[in-house]
Amino acid sequence: MDTVVAVSTAGFGVLGVVAEGPTHGFAVAALFTAGGELGRVWRIPRPVVYRELSRLTDAALVQAVGVETDGPGPDRTIVEVTPEGRDRLHQWLNEPVTRARDARSALLLKLALLDRSDRDTTQLVAAQRDVFEARLQELQSRVSAAEPGSFERTLAIWRVSSTRAILDFLETLASD
Questions:
Q1: What Pfam family is a match, any one (predicted)?
Q2: How far is the CA of 50 from the CAs of 14, 29, 68, in angstroms?
């Protein structure tokens, strides 16, 4: 029986960039810096990028295909996504997040990677709306059931407000 290797959000971010075409760790890391295109969404420090590339290679989701020897600095190993890596990435990109706190990181990263690859976000946005609409119902029940003035109620109200904000965001995306 094959074991599916767990991949972190950072790992999927790195995998998403590698899936765009053969590249090296330094180029991937540049995209996730504060001034990088993906760094606007989520920053991944250079050592983490290299650690994730190593893990992705060990999991056979990316593979080394050459070495870049020209240019300043040390030689750079060129990597590309494997078919299994592409499958895992596509599965992750289409899978909605389940918690509101993951909307700021994982959901926006997914939307950014889908945009970079000119893929339609409609399916993800619709699935994400379904998840958070169901979550909103559950949270509203918690507010109603909680003791007035309790922290449990305060926390449930916070989560309802956060979930509504995400749903508003998703509605705006869907109608854009």
A1: PadR
A2: 9, 8, 16
